[in-house]
Amino acid sequence: MTAPRLTIRRPDDWHLHLRDGGMLKGVIGDTARDFARAIIMPNLVPPVVTTTDAKAYRDRILAALKPGDRFEPLMTLYLTEGTNPDDVEEGKKSGLITAVKLYPAGATTNSHGGVRNIDNAMPVLERMAKIGLPLCVHGEVTTPEVDIFDREAVFIETVLDPLRKRLPELKVTMEHVTTKDGIDYIKGSKANLAGSITTHHLIINRNAILVGGIRPHYYCLPVAKRESHRLALRAAAVSGDARFFLGTDSAPHVDPLKECACGCAGIYTSINTMSCLAHVFEEDGALDKLEAFTSLNGPAWYGLAANEETITLEKNVEPVSFPAKIETEAGPVTVFDPMFPLHWDVVR
Ligand code: NCD
Ligand code: ZN
Protein backbone atom coordinates (compact mmCIF):
# COMPACT_ATOMS: atom_id res chain seq x y z
CA MET A 1 0.00 0.00 0.00
CA THR A 2 1.35 3.43 -0.84
CA ALA A 3 1.58 5.98 1.95
CA PRO A 4 -1.11 8.69 2.03
CA ARG A 5 0.16 11.93 0.51
CA LEU A 6 -1.06 15.50 0.45
CA THR A 7 0.22 18.20 -1.89
CA ILE A 8 -0.46 21.81 -0.99
CA ARG A 9 0.85 25.18 -2.01
CA ARG A 10 4.04 26.07 -0.18
CA PRO A 11 3.13 27.46 3.28
CA ASP A 12 3.99 30.84 4.78
CA ASP A 13 4.45 31.68 8.46
CA TRP A 14 2.66 34.88 9.45
CA HIS A 15 4.42 35.32 12.82
CA LEU A 16 8.01 34.24 13.35
CA HIS A 17 10.95 35.12 15.62
CA LEU A 18 14.29 34.62 13.88
CA ARG A 19 16.44 36.58 16.38
CA ASP A 20 19.91 37.63 15.23
CA GLY A 21 23.56 36.53 15.07
CA GLY A 22 24.31 32.90 15.94
CA MET A 23 20.69 32.10 16.79
CA LEU A 24 19.46 33.46 13.43
CA LYS A 25 22.01 31.31 11.63
CA GLY A 26 20.97 28.28 13.63
CA VAL A 27 17.21 28.51 13.10
CA ILE A 28 16.60 30.06 9.69
CA GLY A 29 17.16 26.83 7.78
CA ASP A 30 14.27 25.15 9.61
CA THR A 31 11.88 27.82 8.38
CA ALA A 32 13.32 28.13 4.86
CA ARG A 33 12.93 24.36 4.38
CA ASP A 34 9.13 24.39 4.53
CA PHE A 35 8.04 28.03 4.25
CA ALA A 36 8.29 30.46 1.35
CA ARG A 37 7.77 33.62 3.39
CA ALA A 38 7.40 34.69 7.00
CA ILE A 39 6.44 37.83 8.84
CA ILE A 40 9.48 38.56 10.95
CA MET A 41 8.94 39.87 14.45
CA PRO A 42 10.89 43.03 15.31
CA ASN A 43 11.49 42.39 19.05
CA LEU A 44 15.27 42.31 18.89
CA VAL A 45 17.47 44.04 21.44
CA PRO A 46 17.31 46.90 20.49
CA PRO A 47 14.05 46.51 18.55
CA VAL A 48 13.55 47.10 14.82
CA VAL A 49 11.94 50.53 15.01
CA THR A 50 12.76 52.38 11.79
CA THR A 51 12.83 51.39 8.15
CA THR A 52 16.60 51.75 8.30
CA ASP A 53 16.67 49.15 11.11
CA ALA A 54 14.35 46.87 9.12
CA LYS A 55 16.46 47.11 5.97
CA ALA A 56 19.62 46.21 7.91
CA TYR A 57 17.86 43.30 9.67
CA ARG A 58 16.47 42.02 6.37
CA ASP A 59 20.00 42.04 4.93
CA ARG A 60 21.28 40.05 7.91
CA ILE A 61 18.48 37.50 7.45
CA LEU A 62 19.20 37.11 3.75
CA ALA A 63 22.92 36.75 4.50
CA ALA A 64 22.15 33.92 6.96
CA LEU A 65 20.36 31.84 4.30
CA LYS A 66 22.23 28.98 2.69
CA PRO A 67 22.86 29.08 -1.06
CA GLY A 68 19.82 27.64 -2.78
CA ASP A 69 17.36 28.51 0.03
CA ARG A 70 14.31 30.26 -1.33
CA PHE A 71 12.85 32.31 1.47
CA GLU A 72 11.49 35.83 1.66
CA PRO A 73 11.42 37.65 5.00
CA LEU A 74 8.49 40.06 5.30
CA MET A 75 9.61 42.81 7.61
CA THR A 76 7.72 44.54 10.41
CA LEU A 77 8.38 47.64 12.49
CA TYR A 78 8.11 47.70 16.26
CA LEU A 79 5.60 50.41 17.11
CA THR A 80 6.69 52.94 19.72
CA GLU A 81 5.05 56.11 20.90
CA GLY A 82 7.73 57.97 18.93
CA THR A 83 7.29 56.15 15.60
CA ASN A 84 7.34 58.57 12.68
CA PRO A 85 4.34 58.14 10.33
CA ASP A 86 6.37 59.34 7.33
CA ASP A 87 9.02 56.67 7.91
CA VAL A 88 6.31 54.00 8.12
CA GLU A 89 4.70 55.20 4.91
CA GLU A 90 8.08 55.24 3.17
CA GLY A 91 8.68 51.65 4.33
CA LYS A 92 5.39 50.48 2.90
CA LYS A 93 5.87 52.34 -0.39
CA SER A 94 9.32 50.87 -0.93
CA GLY A 95 7.90 47.37 -0.41
CA LEU A 96 10.15 46.75 2.61
CA ILE A 97 7.48 46.80 5.33
CA THR A 98 4.53 44.39 5.43
CA ALA A 99 3.07 45.34 8.82
CA VAL A 100 3.66 47.26 12.03
CA LYS A 101 3.67 45.42 15.35
CA LEU A 102 2.03 46.64 18.52
CA TYR A 103 3.46 45.24 21.74
CA PRO A 104 1.82 46.66 24.83
CA ALA A 105 4.78 47.65 27.01
CA GLY A 106 5.91 44.70 29.14
CA ALA A 107 3.62 42.13 27.50
CA THR A 108 6.34 39.71 26.46
CA THR A 109 10.01 39.12 25.58
CA ASN A 110 11.79 42.43 24.80
CA SER A 111 8.66 44.56 24.86
CA HIS A 112 9.62 47.17 27.47
CA GLY A 113 9.89 49.79 24.68
CA GLY A 114 6.34 49.04 23.50
CA VAL A 115 3.27 51.23 23.65
CA ARG A 116 2.07 52.44 27.05
CA ASN A 117 -0.75 54.69 25.93
CA ILE A 118 -2.30 53.96 22.57
CA ASP A 119 -3.44 57.60 22.24
CA ASN A 120 0.20 58.48 21.64
CA ALA A 121 0.38 56.10 18.69
CA MET A 122 -2.76 57.41 16.97
CA PRO A 123 -0.98 59.55 14.34
CA VAL A 124 0.88 56.48 13.06
CA LEU A 125 -2.19 54.25 13.25
CA GLU A 126 -4.22 56.82 11.31
CA ARG A 127 -1.56 56.94 8.61
CA MET A 128 -1.51 53.13 8.45
CA ALA A 129 -5.28 53.05 8.02
CA LYS A 130 -4.96 55.56 5.20
CA ILE A 131 -2.27 53.66 3.31
CA GLY A 132 -3.66 50.16 4.03
CA LEU A 133 -0.78 48.89 6.16
CA PRO A 134 -1.89 46.21 8.66
CA LEU A 135 -1.28 46.43 12.40
CA CYS A 136 -0.22 43.16 14.03
CA VAL A 137 -1.14 43.12 17.70
CA HIS A 138 0.12 41.21 20.68
CA GLY A 139 -3.33 41.24 22.25
CA GLU A 140 -2.70 41.23 25.97
CA VAL A 141 -3.04 43.93 28.60
CA THR A 142 -0.20 44.20 31.06
CA THR A 143 -1.99 45.81 33.98
CA PRO A 144 -0.81 43.95 37.09
CA GLU A 145 -4.38 43.61 38.44
CA VAL A 146 -5.43 41.49 35.46
CA ASP A 147 -4.95 37.74 35.82
CA ILE A 148 -2.52 36.43 33.21
CA PHE A 149 -5.14 34.00 31.87
CA ASP A 150 -7.57 36.92 31.30
CA ARG A 151 -5.14 39.28 29.59
CA GLU A 152 -6.39 38.56 26.08
CA ALA A 153 -10.10 38.94 26.84
CA VAL A 154 -9.48 42.18 28.72
CA PHE A 155 -7.32 43.50 25.86
CA ILE A 156 -10.15 42.91 23.39
CA GLU A 157 -12.62 44.73 25.57
CA THR A 158 -10.49 47.65 26.72
CA VAL A 159 -8.00 48.25 23.89
CA LEU A 160 -8.80 46.44 20.65
CA ASP A 161 -12.52 47.04 20.37
CA PRO A 162 -12.26 50.76 21.24
CA LEU A 163 -9.38 51.13 18.75
CA ARG A 164 -11.35 49.45 15.97
CA LYS A 165 -14.37 51.64 16.69
CA ARG A 166 -12.16 54.71 16.60
CA LEU A 167 -10.37 53.66 13.41
CA PRO A 168 -12.53 51.12 11.55
CA GLU A 169 -10.42 51.42 8.38
CA LEU A 170 -7.34 50.04 10.16
CA LYS A 171 -6.58 46.43 9.20
CA VAL A 172 -5.72 44.50 12.36
CA THR A 173 -4.19 41.04 12.73
CA MET A 174 -4.82 39.63 16.19
CA GLU A 175 -1.74 37.52 16.52
CA HIS A 176 -1.45 34.17 18.28
CA VAL A 177 -5.08 34.06 19.42
CA THR A 178 -5.31 31.80 22.48
CA THR A 179 -8.89 32.12 23.70
CA LYS A 180 -12.44 31.42 22.62
CA ASP A 181 -13.05 35.11 23.36
CA GLY A 182 -10.53 36.02 20.65
CA ILE A 183 -11.97 33.56 18.14
CA ASP A 184 -15.52 34.80 18.79
CA TYR A 185 -14.45 38.42 18.51
CA ILE A 186 -12.84 37.80 15.11
CA LYS A 187 -15.80 35.76 13.89
CA GLY A 188 -18.17 38.52 14.96
CA SER A 189 -16.28 41.24 13.12
CA LYS A 190 -17.50 42.45 9.75
CA ALA A 191 -14.23 43.60 8.20
CA ASN A 192 -10.58 44.47 8.72
CA LEU A 193 -9.88 41.85 11.40
CA ALA A 194 -8.16 38.48 11.11
CA GLY A 195 -6.27 36.21 13.49
CA SER A 196 -3.20 34.04 13.42
CA ILE A 197 -3.02 30.82 15.42
CA THR A 198 0.16 29.02 16.49
CA THR A 199 0.95 25.35 16.09
CA HIS A 200 1.43 24.75 19.79
CA HIS A 201 -1.81 26.40 20.91
CA LEU A 202 -3.68 23.88 18.74
CA ILE A 203 -1.98 21.07 20.65
CA ILE A 204 -1.37 21.98 24.28
CA ASN A 205 -3.48 23.47 27.03
CA ARG A 206 -2.16 24.88 30.29
CA ASN A 207 -1.86 21.46 31.88
CA ALA A 208 1.19 20.88 29.66
CA ILE A 209 3.01 23.61 31.56
CA LEU A 210 1.93 22.78 35.09
CA VAL A 211 0.94 19.14 35.60
CA GLY A 212 3.48 16.74 37.07
CA GLY A 213 6.16 19.40 37.42
CA ILE A 214 6.79 22.77 35.84
CA ARG A 215 7.71 22.39 32.18
CA PRO A 216 9.40 25.49 30.84
CA HIS A 217 9.49 24.32 27.23
CA TYR A 218 5.69 24.63 27.09
CA TYR A 219 5.74 28.17 28.46
CA CYS A 220 5.07 30.91 25.94
CA LEU A 221 3.14 34.15 25.75
CA PRO A 222 0.28 34.43 25.44
CA VAL A 223 0.28 31.52 27.86
CA ALA A 224 -1.71 28.42 26.84
CA LYS A 225 -5.22 28.46 28.31
CA ARG A 226 -7.69 25.79 29.47
CA GLU A 227 -8.93 23.01 27.19
CA SER A 228 -12.17 24.70 26.10
CA HIS A 229 -10.10 27.50 24.57
CA ARG A 230 -7.82 25.08 22.75
CA LEU A 231 -10.88 23.40 21.25
CA ALA A 232 -12.19 26.76 20.02
CA LEU A 233 -8.84 27.47 18.36
CA ARG A 234 -8.85 24.04 16.74
CA ALA A 235 -12.36 24.49 15.39
CA ALA A 236 -11.45 27.88 13.90
CA ALA A 237 -8.20 26.65 12.34
CA VAL A 238 -9.68 23.57 10.70
CA SER A 239 -12.84 25.35 9.54
CA GLY A 240 -11.22 26.90 6.49
CA ASP A 241 -12.59 30.32 7.55
CA ALA A 242 -10.46 32.83 5.60
CA ARG A 243 -9.95 34.99 8.70
CA PHE A 244 -7.71 32.41 10.39
CA PHE A 245 -4.21 31.41 9.31
CA LEU A 246 -0.93 30.05 10.64
CA GLY A 247 1.51 32.21 12.57
CA THR A 248 3.79 29.75 14.34
CA ASP A 249 5.23 32.25 16.83
CA SER A 250 8.23 29.95 16.82
CA ALA A 251 10.34 31.77 19.41
CA PRO A 252 13.73 30.19 20.12
CA HIS A 253 15.53 30.78 23.41
CA VAL A 254 18.63 28.84 24.45
CA ASP A 255 17.92 26.17 27.04
CA PRO A 256 19.72 27.89 29.96
CA LEU A 257 17.37 30.86 29.54
CA LYS A 258 14.30 28.59 29.60
CA GLU A 259 15.42 26.23 32.35
CA CYS A 260 15.99 28.64 35.21
CA ALA A 261 14.19 30.46 38.02
CA CYS A 262 12.75 33.11 35.68
CA GLY A 263 12.57 31.38 32.33
CA CYS A 264 11.89 33.13 29.01
CA ALA A 265 8.60 32.70 27.16
CA GLY A 266 8.74 31.04 23.77
CA ILE A 267 8.38 27.65 22.07
CA TYR A 268 10.46 26.50 19.11
CA THR A 269 8.27 24.88 16.44
CA SER A 270 9.71 25.84 13.06
CA ILE A 271 11.29 22.46 12.51
CA ASN A 272 8.21 20.26 13.02
CA THR A 273 5.25 22.58 12.47
CA MET A 274 4.06 21.04 9.22
CA SER A 275 4.18 17.53 10.71
CA CYS A 276 2.26 18.70 13.78
CA LEU A 277 -0.36 20.52 11.71
CA ALA A 278 -0.97 17.60 9.35
CA HIS A 279 -1.56 15.45 12.44
CA VAL A 280 -3.98 17.99 13.93
CA PHE A 281 -5.95 18.50 10.72
CA GLU A 282 -6.17 14.76 10.05
CA GLU A 283 -7.34 14.11 13.61
CA ASP A 284 -10.15 16.63 13.03
CA GLY A 285 -11.04 15.12 9.64
CA ALA A 286 -9.97 18.31 7.91
CA LEU A 287 -6.82 17.56 5.91
CA ASP A 288 -8.54 19.24 2.98
CA LYS A 289 -8.47 22.53 4.96
CA LEU A 290 -4.75 22.45 5.81
CA GLU A 291 -3.80 24.35 2.67
CA ALA A 292 -6.25 27.16 3.44
CA PHE A 293 -4.75 27.56 6.93
CA THR A 294 -1.06 27.39 5.98
CA SER A 295 -0.94 28.65 2.42
CA LEU A 296 -4.03 30.55 1.22
CA ASN A 297 -5.76 32.58 3.94
CA GLY A 298 -2.62 34.43 5.07
CA PRO A 299 -1.53 35.75 1.69
CA ALA A 300 -5.10 36.74 0.85
CA TRP A 301 -5.31 38.77 4.08
CA TYR A 302 -1.96 40.50 3.45
CA GLY A 303 -2.87 41.18 -0.20
CA LEU A 304 -0.20 38.88 -1.60
CA ALA A 305 -0.45 36.05 -4.10
CA ALA A 306 -0.36 32.48 -2.78
CA ASN A 307 2.87 30.66 -3.56
CA GLU A 308 3.01 28.87 -6.90
CA GLU A 309 5.35 26.16 -5.62
CA THR A 310 3.96 23.19 -3.71
CA ILE A 311 5.11 20.86 -0.97
CA THR A 312 4.04 17.26 -0.46
CA LEU A 313 3.39 15.71 2.93
CA GLU A 314 3.50 11.96 3.38
CA LYS A 315 2.14 9.82 6.20
CA ASN A 316 4.74 7.29 7.25
CA VAL A 317 3.95 4.04 9.04
CA GLU A 318 6.87 4.56 11.41
CA PRO A 319 6.93 7.77 13.47
CA VAL A 320 9.11 10.53 12.06
CA SER A 321 11.91 11.58 14.37
CA PHE A 322 12.85 15.16 15.03
CA PRO A 323 15.81 16.13 17.21
CA ALA A 324 14.95 16.89 20.83
CA LYS A 325 17.23 19.93 20.54
CA ILE A 326 18.92 21.84 17.78
CA GLU A 327 22.43 23.20 18.29
CA THR A 328 23.07 26.83 17.39
CA GLU A 329 26.11 29.06 17.82
CA ALA A 330 24.13 30.75 20.61
CA GLY A 331 23.52 27.42 22.38
CA PRO A 332 21.03 24.52 22.35
CA VAL A 333 17.33 25.13 21.68
CA THR A 334 14.72 22.55 22.69
CA VAL A 335 12.28 21.55 19.97
CA PHE A 336 8.53 21.51 20.69
CA ASP A 337 7.42 18.01 21.70
CA PRO A 338 3.72 17.55 20.84
CA MET A 339 3.61 14.52 23.19
CA PHE A 340 2.27 12.21 20.49
CA PRO A 341 4.15 10.45 17.70
CA LEU A 342 4.29 12.32 14.40
CA HIS A 343 3.75 10.31 11.24
CA TRP A 344 3.36 13.03 8.63
CA ASP A 345 6.44 14.64 7.17
CA VAL A 346 7.29 16.92 4.28
CA VAL A 347 8.82 14.94 1.44
CA ARG A 348 12.26 16.45 0.83
C1 NCD B 1 8.10 35.68 22.04
C2 NCD B 1 9.61 35.89 22.08
O1 NCD B 1 10.30 35.11 22.75
O2 NCD B 1 10.11 36.80 21.43
N1 NCD B 1 7.73 34.77 23.07
C3 NCD B 1 6.64 33.98 23.10
O3 NCD B 1 6.39 33.35 24.12
N2 NCD B 1 5.84 33.88 22.05
C4 NCD B 1 7.40 36.98 22.13
C5 NCD B 1 5.94 36.91 21.79
O4 NCD B 1 5.56 36.73 20.64
O5 NCD B 1 5.14 37.05 22.71
ZN1 ZN C 1 5.75 36.10 18.93
Mean pLDDT: 97
Largest sheet: 8 strands, parallel
Strand order of the largest sheet: 2-3-4-5-6-7-8-9
The radius of gyration over CA amounts to 19 Å
How do the helices and strands line up, and which of them pair or pack?
Blueprint lengths: L4 E5 L2 E5 L4 H14 L2 E4 L10 H14 L7 E7 L6 H9 L3 E6 L19 H10 L3 E3 L13 H16 L5 E3 L5 H8 L5 E5 L9 H4 L16 H12 L5 E3 L8 H4 L14 H11 L6 H13 L7 E6 L9 E4 L2 E4 L9 E3 L2
Parallel strand pairs: 2-3, 3-4, 4-5, 5-6, 6-7, 7-8, 8-9
Antiparallel strand pairs: 1-10, 10-13, 11-12
Helix pairs in contact: 3-4
The structure holds N-carbamoyl-L-aspartate and zinc ion.
Account of the 3D structure:
Helices cover 33% and strands 17% of the residues. Helix 3 packs parallel to helix 4. Strand 4 (72-78), helix 3 (85-93) and strand 5 form a beta-alpha-beta unit. The mean pLDDT is 97. The strands form three sheets. Strands 2-3-4-5-6-7-8-9 form an eight-stranded parallel sheet, with helices on both faces. The protein has helices at residues 21-34, 51-64, 85-93, 122-131, 151-166, 180-187, 207-210, 227-238, 255-258, 273-283, 290-302; strands at residues 5-9, 12-16, 37-40, 72-78, 97-102, 135-137, 172-174, 193-197, 244-246, 310-315, 325-328, 331-334, 344-346. The chain is built from eleven helices and 13 strands. With 348 residues, it is an alpha/beta fold. The two termini are 21 Å apart. The protein has a single domain (5-346), classed as Alpha-Beta Barrel (TIM Barrel), CATH 3.20.20.140. It binds N-carbamoyl-L-aspartate (NCD) and zinc ion (ZN). N-carbamoyl-L-aspartate (NCD) is lined by residues 17, 43, 108-109, 138, 220-221, 249, 251, 265-266.
